[in-house]
Amino acid sequence: MSRKIPQEQYEKTRSYRLKQWLDGSKDLYLGEVEMKPQKPYEETHKQRKKREKEKARAVERVYDTERNAEIRIFRKIYRVFSILFCVFLVLMLLIAVSYLPTIGSADKPANNEVSARYIESGLQETGAVNIVTGMILDYRAFDTLGESHVLFVATCTVLILLRRDEKKRKDGEPAEEEQDFLYEPKDDVILQTVAKILVPPIVIFGIYVILCGHLGPGGGFSGGAIIGAGLILYLNAFGFEKTERFFRASTYKKLSFTALACYTFSKCYSFYTGANHIESVIPLGTPGAILSSGLILVLNICVGVVVAGTMYTFYAMFRKGGY
Amino acid sequence: MAFVQNLPFISILLSLFAGPLSSILSGKKAKWVNLAVIGAVGAMSAAVLAFVLSTGEPYVYMMGHFPAPWGNEIRVGVLEASMAVFFCVIMFLCMIGGSRERELEIEESKMNLYYVMVNLLLCSLLALIYTNDLFTAYVFVEINTIAACGLIMIRQNGRTIEAATRYMIMSLLGSGLFLLGLCFLYDLTGHLLMSNIQESVRVLKQTGEYHVPLLVSICLISVGLAIKSALYPFHAWLPDAYGYSTLSSAAILSSLVSKGYVFLLVKIFYRVVGFDVIMDSKVINVLFVFGIIGMIMGSVAAIKENNIRRMIAFSSVAQIGYIYMGLGLGSQIGSIASVYHIVAHAATKSLLFVAASGLTQASGDSTDFFDLTGAGFRNKLAGIAFTVGSLSMVGFPMFSGFTSKLLFAQAGVESGNKMLLTLVALALSTILNAVYFMKTVIRIYTPEKKKVLVQKDFHSVTMADQPAKSAALVCFIVLNLFLGLWSEPMVRLFGDGLAMFA
Predict the structure, then answer these.
(1) Could you give the 3-state DSSP secondary structure of residue B230?
(2) A176 Cβ neighbours under 8 A, 6+ residues apart
């Protein structure tokens, strides 16, 4: 439509044609370029016979894996080549390893000023008697920060894969718990008695390993794994009803969020002060005491919480698809 | 120390913190947190870029109270900062552009987990860009891999689960090889810090010690990262992963995740092993050959494809081939061309994915090629955007793809014995690109009969129906034009950045 000129005149203008083309209402080539309309495709009886025969032949040849020579040969070649490739890879790596510096020799490149400082002044600088803990939670804390988030993101991925939406359950379908009930042994007296005796020491030992991570062998990762194992044993003996009183998916999320946020913020503080050469106000304490080595104890607890929750969540997800 | 210098570390930790935070929020709130975090990180990175440009030299930032070989360290230069800005812009647009598809395809209760993945992915990309430590790079490669897997399979149908499984297997193989190579390097040099490894490698090269393990470790790292970024023979995971995952995942995966690994490889070539050692080792020749094969084979596979999403995915294989070819030329300008193509391809490929989804939306959400007939008329903006993206991929002047093709050709001409192969491959690949992209453009601008439209119940989509996607498309088009028309300063920026790298 145009306001200034009548419709017929407007239809002759370029802008109208452009508008038509933009709308897709008119094919510009129509009438300008000689076009032959395609003949509608009609299948004769003979052609149909041929097509069906070819299809049957294709199905026979492609999907008949038993007698299909091509697939058989391909599989054989595939096997041979995969073995050859693996042998090549193993040989290459073995040869490369044989050229590496001798393990344990004093002039190995890895025995340099880096490890020397970890060993010699690790205790004074981090306050942790356990050098390994001092290394992963203080010297190279950024890596460990990433590593604990690896666990978190792995749990989230498992949640994505396995969690079933309660809302999506169809009406006739029995609830998850009822389905589980059919396949699970319940109230196993032996298991329950053993669990009653074993679970408390396991959890307490796990807490001990976490809390003393900076004093001796142990730390957040190993202690968290122990606690997680204890929880899984408890779950196996007493079922989801008992564990869900204190540990649900939302509990896990809140716990791990608190732990990771605590970790991130404390590291934020120490990165910021470190890089700007500000003296940190957190005291290192006397080496050997439980409350020592600055932030390491806090970080160990955070890592322990995340690891324990992750182990338990993995188990619960794989077993039931939600808890 | 100026406060601006703290921003890279703050942006890494901010996006890291946003991950767990999103897990306890509802999907809607998590969405806003995610957009805010991406925006904030982008703004911070821009400030850092301005700072680094004004001082003209890179700086290192200590992560903690202990200096570099003992503690962790990040390093900020022009190239790192500009990549960070750029990745944030692309990610922001991808998230905006794919919001409708996310709401349709992802279960409501899992929505917040999607943003957990995106936040952690952003964090890992930033860490990969900034890190000056090989082991830190490995840790964040892990986060990146797992998060990408989650992004693929959050839209749950059979194809995405299969694609995620493939991606997981291939990608973990790549991570494993990368870790092995890293262990070898550590054993030979005793360091994990990039600058220290480079010094040690230089000494090893002069004395000729440990020649075999050094070569093996370079091979392992290159192959590992090549698998993760889908260089040609290792691309089997790619078409399904990009073709069936939800839109924003596909766009982010194709434009950022694979590019993050390529960037890491460039960094390792320049900052860890040293470019002269790489040149000597002949590994780049292998990358060059596979890059060229990828350029051709990716395009051939794309021509055969009938599903538009998978077609665009296969085109990624070809474009990754370009990037590796540029690296394989082994010259400064070749590397600049590759880095430029990382940016150009990321901007174009995400544009194509978003535009293609606009077109399929106007065709009853069918990705079938023949259903797209006349889709350019039914969704005009998406049609224009797809045309722009296609022209850019083919290498039409004015758009970003042209400049990268020009740079590749220049690099090829200067490279001596690789000249003929490079130019022939470029020409052939351009023609093949044109075949499948122009075929699609012609298809979407062929008017469909009214009767068929009514019969198939296709409706037109106007800009008002999809404000978010339209905004994203317009921004993408502007970005493409910007990269194409003002390519000179960008190329200079990347050249300066690469010079600061060594």
Answers:
(1) coil
(2) A164, A320, A321, A322
Taking the Cβ of residue B149 and every Cβ of chain A, the question of whether any pair is shorter than 8 Å is answered with yes
pLDDT value at A150 more than 90: yes
Asked whether the beta carbons of B206 and B214 are under 8 A apart, the reply is: no
Quick: pLDDT tens for A109-149.
888 888 888 888 888 888 888 888 888 888 888 999 999 99
According to DSSP, the residues that pair with B76 across neighbouring strands are B59
8 A C-beta contact, residue B362 and residue B460: yes
Percentage of the residues of chain B whose pLDDT score is greater than 70: 100
What tokens appear for A284 in the block? 């290192």
What are the structure tokens assigned to B479, written together?
């970005």
- In A, which residues are within 8 Å of B64 by CB distance? 138-139, 141-142, 270-271, 274-275
Asked whether the beta carbons of residue B191 and residue A92 sit closer than 8 angstroms, the reply is no
Q: Kindly provide the ipTM of the predicted complex, given to two decimals.
A: 0.91
Token representation of residue A206:
């796990």
Domain ranges of chain A: 1-29, 130-320
Terminal-to-terminal C-alpha distance of chain A: 64
Q: What is the pLDDT of residues B227-264, one digit of tens each?
A: 999 998 889 899 999 999 999 999 999 999 999 999 99
- Residue matched to tokens 């060229």: B292
Taking an 8 Å cut-off on Cβ atoms, the answer to whether B23 and A160 are in contact is no
Q: What is the pLDDT of residues B326-354, one digit of tens each?
A: 999 988 899 999 999 999 999 999 999 99
- How far CA B100 is from CA of B241, B465, B470, in Å, comes to 19, 11, 12
Q: What is the pLDDT of residue B107?
A: 86
CA distance A231 to A243: 8
CB of B284 within 8 A of CB of B221? no
A168: which chain B residues are within 8 Å (Cβ-Cβ)?
A: 107
User: Which of A139, A119, A113, A308 lies closest to B135, judged by CA?
Assistant: A139
pTM over 0.90? The answer is no
Question: Is there a contact between B103 and A122 (Cβ–Cβ < 8 Å)?
Answer: no
- Listed by number, the residues of chain B in 102-121 with a beta carbon closer than 8 Å to a beta carbon of chain A are 107, 109-110, 113, 116-117, 120
β-sheet bridge partners, residue B307: B368
Strand partners, B73: B62
Distances, alpha carbon B192 to alpha carbons A166, B75, B272, in Å: 48, 14, 9
